[in-house]
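Hi R.,

Here's the chain you asked about this morning:
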Amino acid sequence: MEHQQQPQNVSRQNFDDWMVPVYAPAAFIPVRGEGSWLWDQAGKDYVDFAGGIAVNALGHAHPEIRKTLHEQADKVWHLGNGYTNEPVLRLAKQLIDATFADKVFFCNSGAEANEAALKLARLYGHKAGGEKNEIIAFKNAFHGRTLFTVTAGGQPKYSEDFAPLPPAITHLPFNDLAAVASQISSRTCAVIVEPIQGEGGVVPADAEFLQGLRELCDKHQAVLIFDEVQTGVGRTGELYAYQHYGVVPDILTSAKALGGGFPIGAMLTTDRYAVLFQPGTHGTTYGGNPLATAVAGKVFEMINTAEVLSGVSKRHEWFIAGLKRINDRYHVFSQVRGQGLLLGAVMSERYKDQAKQLNTLAAEEGLIALIAGPNVLRFAPSLIIPGADIEEGLNRLERAVARLCV
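And here is the predicted structure, written out as tokens:
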């Protein structure tokens, strides 16, 4: 085939021409970021309240993260899993020292971390004998896009087109402990739960619900898995949300903020379960490579400080106050829920299911936010976003709200 020159100028139209249409991206293309700001091809600026879907926990192009990336890039990028490396060992020790875990498995995404967790739980069930293979999950949950994790997620719109789906996964109402108590049995190998349902509408779990799940899992010898892909690494104001609730899981999954923008995932667990995975049982080519783990190690070191974690709670209050100010004037939200810097503003009855419309207007006003279903505007900004940027972003949001409410 004749070699064609790579195009120098690309546009949003090229996405429709060249990309498999699994996304419907915004009309503009961001090309540069710094802190909590982004700029598009036309030079227009945006305040970033989305954080790459709770990923850019230290904003864009943080100088210390860039320095770490450059230093590791000058050494070694990738080795494959026939070898270990220094950055991955250091990051594993950081995670173990800061959490309940004894062992860590590294991969490339939240879906992969949850896939590993669910496979480990099924393996545990098989070793226990009998028919111990049921996984209890929750309606409106989201755990990833692999066939196993999309089935565990309780949103049929994401899974039904890919049937037949992996069996023995039961979906129950979130925050309904009685439903779990009536379903769980000796056949149950695991319960998987998000401490805050992110994609499902930013819905926090009740403390009694998570405590009850822990007790039921202990009673029936089932593995309790916390999916902390979105809530982990400082997002709620604690390092991990389980510390917020005082409920310790058997397996925890982490990704998103862990790499601060560099793809990485991790499954944390105790020796009791880790020993079930042996060489050849599970693996990944890129997981735990030196480039990703060096970056994640620096991100984790910077976030796991009293100053940053307490700063998340302070910023939470600024957001709540600013959103209340907007809502007092326009009555566009029925409630704001969430913890730390994972917030969901629920559209009021008059503006029901117009979250996407408001998000589009916000982008036109120079604010990047998220949605969590058709009725919730979601915010997951940098954990260190300056107060002035929060104020400016909320001012832009108010202009968008004013347009929606005319």
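One quick note: The two ends are 56 Å apart (CA to CA).

Cheers,
M.
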